[in-house]
Specification:
The protein has 383 residues and is an alpha/beta fold. The protein is built from 14 helices and seven strands. The chain has three domains: 106 residues, YqgF/RNase H-like domain (Nucleotidyltransferase, domain 5); 93 residues, no CATH class; 161 residues, no CATH class. The longest helix has 33 residues.
Length: 383
């Protein structure tokens, strides 16, 4: 007898999971139960539904992570984690409950209308946690600096230098004196908060640079650093957030995944494009846009970029240099057409993703040891 597939929708929360099952055909999915969020209970209920090879489960990506997905896959039960923003929703439906959400997932899983998200392996997820911790640390550092800056401004203190939060600026803040002891202690507290936040950022950046070396995607991290504006932190963040970029069949798919393509609302003979979609991974989008600002300047090989290019293959070097020339021309051309800096940078960042995709598609991203040794000997002879 041929086995029929049963489609299981799981509405997963911190403490409970609502389970609904849809059979093949057009029948309405059945709600089984709302059970505690414990693996032994989930496994027991799924055994009642059917054999592992006949089940296909799904649940929305959320704060509970991918633990349930990995447990289901280890038990031989197929599972997909779906993108919540891409789950179809009827506008006329004004009632939302956990059981109804489970029924909706089971129904759309059966019809094939759900979009799966990329599930990283455990090591990649650990690296992503580390890069996101740095993001949180940077946010805390910016907040602490803003609070200290507002305190100084309220009391008429304006830094005469050009660049803020440098060593000279911090020394200038330390020598500020106020007539009241309460204000002086507030200054000391704000200053300590800024310093501690900066130390936290530096500590996490050192951890990223140390631990990313043992990662399976480290060759891609090194190859991306051949691009201008992409340091080890930026390359590790992009790779941790997006995974293996070569999994995208075309660069347009990568650009749409990061949310750097324009939105569109066209009908009939009218075609109207709007602002960027800003869908997908916001952390990766922010890092790529920040890296794109480096292409405002004329193409050149600084000492730092030259050192990062020493460990990559010749083809990756060619792609990175082509990116410098093309993206700078694009930026200048867009400014000449009257585009503002922000729109020009968004366009440059979108095309920068295309160059990252091209680098990831290179079969040999790193230079072999003999090539690196020969380059080093030739430079020594020239010096």
């Amino acid at each position: 007898m041929e086995s029929t597939i049963r489609y299981v929708g799981l509405d997963v929360h911190k403490d409970t999971i609502a389970i609904a099952v849809a059979d093949e055909g057009r029948t309405e999915p059945d709600v089984l139960a709302t059970i505690p969020h414990r693996w032994e209970v989930v496994r027991r209920y799924l055994k009642r539904v059917g054999r592992a090879e006949t089940l296909l489960c799904c649940y929305e990506a959320g704060p509970t992570g991918y633990g349930l997905y990995r447990l289901l896959e280890a038990a031989g039960i197929a599972c997909m984690v779906v993108a919540p923003a891409l789950v179809p929703d009827a506008k006329g439906n004004r009632i939302k409950t956990d059981r109804r959400d489970a029924v909706k997932l089971a129904r759309y899983l059966r019809s094939g209308d759900l979009v799966a998200v990329y599930v990283p392996d455990e090591v990649s997820e650990a690296v992503r946690d580390l890069t996101r911790a740095r993001f949180d640390a940077k946010k805390a550092e910016r907040a602490a600096r803003q609070q200290l800056g507002h305190f100084l401004l309220r009391h008429g203190e304006r830094y005469p230098g050009r660049s803020t939060w440098t060593a000279a600026h911090m020394d200038w803040i330390r020598f500020r004196r106020y007539p009241h002891e309460a204000q002086q202690r507030v200054l000391v507290d704000y200053l300590h908060t800024v310093e501690e936040a900066g130390e936290r950022v530096h500590r996490l950046e050192a951890d990223i640079a140390e631990l990313v070396v043992s990662w399976s995607l480290f060759p891609l991290v090194q190859a991306l650093q051949a691009l201008r504006g992409v340091s080890v932190i930026a390359a590790a963040t992009i790779t941790a957030e997006l995974g293996d970029i070569s999994r995208f069949e075309t660069p347009r798919q990568l650009m749409a995944y990061v949310g750097l393509v324009p939105s569109e609302h066209s009908s009939g003979q009218r075609r109207r494009q709007g602002c960027l979609t800003r869908t997908g991974n916001s952390n990766a989008r922010w890092v790529v846009v920040e890296a794109a600002w480096s292409y405002r300047f004329s193409p050149k090989m600084s000492r730092e970029i030259r050192e990062r290019n020493e460990v990559v293959s010749t083809e990756v070097r060619r792609i990175a240099w082509k990116a410098q020339e093309r993206l700078h021309r694009k930026y200048v051309r867009l400014l000449a057409r009257g585009k503002c800096n922000q729109k020009a940078m968004a366009a440059v960042a979108r095309e920068l993703l295309g160059f990252m995709w091209a680098i990831s598609r290179e079969p040999r991203q790193l230079a072999d040891s003999t090539t690196r040794r020969g380059d080093h000997e030739s430079r020594s002879a020239m010096s």
